[in-house]
């Protein structure tokens, strides 16, 4: 598979088919608010402080740098569960050694506030969060476009969404994955964090391309006849018929790697009819591949064949990556929408499990690119 030149940007397919909707979105502290939800309750004892911070127009690394400078503690001794957007108002948890608690008495910064302080027995690490709640205000929304957004939002609430990696993963020019490929081919990068970041962008690009292929298949299952599906994907008539019979938009395949949603052990889809019913109830979902040695492998069916189309050209690099699985299809939680016709403002609120991107939801709703 050709990953393309630097000036070629891959655009994943949308699951919804409406035309673009006009609305104005700006990532600023009034119109974009993110609240991190911790994975567990903090113990109240231990040698680590957990700072619940509110930052405005600061990246997570910039916030940690400020705390480091003002406390005198080294950056490496701070911990956090996830990286948050620089633009907007974001609430998240930061850990640091308890012995530096005294500096908090006089802490003051125009863009960084400490909302709460907890004590815990371990340092926070990447992934130690349940997910994030989002508030997004869209402006210049006409009544007609508000109705269109509401209809699209309702569909996503009911059927779920394609869990693409957001544009933030791929850099200003959307080509970080190419740098990752060069590193896998032997290019030297001294900074290990930077090296891992670029390789992760490469894995994410392949994930998005495979997920887009599966969204395409799901559209084909709706739009084409059994005979056409059988010819396109080399299926038997019964396999093509069951593909069309599945009630959910995103179609399951024999050989898919499934997992209990929102977390659980991986297993192979063998009984399509049973798993289709569980998928419809949102008990399970489908996991896509993040290429690497430790990734759970599929060994059968159309799922294996489609994965091979995307990933097999890069199998030689597998020993250089750990790999894993990530949900391809995810769900909005605690979602609501409010429209102020007088101001032409439309506000969206929803919760996403960790690793999902709010901008992916916006792009699906509006059919606009925010990169």
TrEMBL record:
<keyword id="KW-0413">Isomerase</keyword>
<feature type="active site" description="Nucleophile">
    <location>
        <position position="85"/>
    </location>
</feature>
<keyword id="KW-0819">tRNA processing</keyword>
<feature type="domain" description="TRUD">
    <location>
        <begin position="160"/>
        <end position="340"/>
    </location>
</feature>
<comment type="function">
    <text>Responsible for synthesis of pseudouridine from uracil-13 in transfer RNAs.</text>
</comment>
<protein>
    <recommendedName>
        <fullName>tRNA pseudouridine synthase D</fullName>
        <ecNumber>5.4.99.27</ecNumber>
    </recommendedName>
</protein>
<dbReference type="GO" id="GO:0031119">
    <property type="term" value="P:tRNA pseudouridine synthesis"/>
</dbReference>
<dbReference type="Pfam" id="PF01142">
    <property type="entry name" value="TruD"/>
</dbReference>
<dbReference type="InterPro" id="IPR020103">
    <property type="entry name" value="PsdUridine_synth_cat_dom_sf"/>
</dbReference>
<dbReference type="GO" id="GO:0003723">
    <property type="term" value="F:RNA binding"/>
</dbReference>
<dbReference type="GO" id="GO:0005829">
    <property type="term" value="C:cytosol"/>
</dbReference>
<dbReference type="InterPro" id="IPR001656">
    <property type="entry name" value="PsdUridine_synth_TruD"/>
</dbReference>
<dbReference type="InterPro" id="IPR042214">
    <property type="entry name" value="TruD_catalytic"/>
</dbReference>
<dbReference type="InterPro" id="IPR020119">
    <property type="entry name" value="PsdUridine_synth_TruD_CS"/>
</dbReference>
<dbReference type="InterPro" id="IPR050170">
    <property type="entry name" value="TruD_pseudoU_synthase"/>
</dbReference>
<comment type="similarity">
    <text>Belongs to the pseudouridine synthase TruD family.</text>
</comment>
<dbReference type="InterPro" id="IPR011760">
    <property type="entry name" value="PsdUridine_synth_TruD_insert"/>
</dbReference>
<dbReference type="GO" id="GO:0160150">
    <property type="term" value="F:tRNA pseudouridine(13) synthase activity"/>
</dbReference>
